[in-house]
Amino acid sequence: VYGNRAFEKALVELDNIFEQAGFIPIACGAFIGEHSYCTKANPIAPGRPDNNDLLQAELFGKAIKKKWNAGIIDACNMKAVSDLPMTMSAKLRFIAGVLKIKFVKSKQRNVPETDLGRCIHCGLCVRICPAGAISKENECDTDADKCIRCCACVKMCRQGAKTFNTPFAPLLSRNFYKKKPNITIV
Where exactly are the structural domains of the chain? Predict the structure, then answer.
């Protein structure tokens, strides 16, 4: 699953891991999900996966089952799956935006922040943080060294107490607003 920008070499890297572990992947796919930086102000694949995406995932699963039940265990060539092409102008606009962000010093924190007036200390953010960057003792602070900026805490906070204001969100929203398709190979 990727956030409508690019999955780059993720399938190739997975294929290498599978190969080293002795697995034979018989299918692969790259599905769109709402980008972790998506907000109302900066939509990046908002609402994805949508009903059509879920239908495609269901059909993908059925095709895999059919292949398996038929005894077809030929390897899916994950290395042959390339990311969707991007126009040169879009690529240059995005690179220029990234470089501008990287070279202009920002005073913004690099982790999600907590609005103390909204936080009810329910501990949900502590439980859902995959990196353990939020401690039970102090759920209002995020450990910048551990945080992977996945924004799970922002997305799941029922009180809207967590926010992550990154200059990358508007850049991604401007450059990757076109709805990308899912890619599957069985």
Answer: 10-104+169-185, 109-164
Amino acid in the structure at residue 105: K
d(CA 37, CA 125): 16
Report residue 38 as tokens: 């998506």
CA distance 178 to 181: 10
> Using 50, 70 and 90 to split pLDDT, how confident is the model at 89?
confident
Q: Which of 29-33, 74-78, 90-94 has the highest mean pLDDT?
A: 29-33
Overall fold of domain 109-164: Alpha-Beta Plaits (3.30.70)
Residue in 10, 51, 2 with CA at minimum distance from that of residue 180: 2
Are the C-beta atoms of 145 and 113 separated by less than 8 Å?
Answer: no
Q: How many whole angstroms separate alpha carbon 162 and alpha carbon 125?
A: 9
The whole-model pTM stands at 0.80
